[in-house]
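<purpose> Linking amino acid order to shape
<body> The protein record starts here
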Amino acid sequence: MADSSARTAHLAELRGTRYGEIFLITSQEGELTAAVYNTTGLNDCPLAAWGSLDPRELAKDFGVLAVYLNGPRFWTLDQIAARAVGEVVSFGGLAARWVAELPIPPDLDLAGRPGGRYYLEITVRRETEWIFAAGRPVYELLTPDGKTYIMQAYSHIVDDSLTADSLPGLGDRLHLPERWQYRARIPDRDLTLRAVAGRACVLQDELQNTYMQQMSE
């Protein structure tokens, strides 16, 4: 589902920027895949425009099985370097750009039933680098088997009162898996999260904040 005219992009000063994502979901040989379109760099996901989007109508308009609206969200990183982005599409007047492809695991519950999707690692196909500036906070989930997941965005999907100022104490609100830890820290050098071989491993907490695994190439 990737756009054959894919090109590169670099976006800076993103921390705190509001955005939304539209997933166009199709089924091929019984497997669900979402083409992910993101508003970053095109608009700030105006709330009136976002709130007017109807997933059922969009699914009809684009001839897909379903549409999922993922947002509003706010970046907790500073820069994005993308080696492959695609076409810009208008969704009810809201512009968004193709950025990734998401194979949807059978056990991933996009409807959001309790426990159906949280702390479950999934793989996103994209060509990106997330850059967190030195001297600015990062928020991490640490697992007992040594994995580190760094928050790339916080969400207003569940709690629209969540702010950047509330993130240092977020761990007190989360029902983490056994022996997992939430940590806030300030790196003394720029931190870069890279998709490895075109794959990024991500997960969400129960507030639908999104984290990406830090991996070696």
Remarks:
- Confidence is low (pLDDT under 50) at residues 1-5.
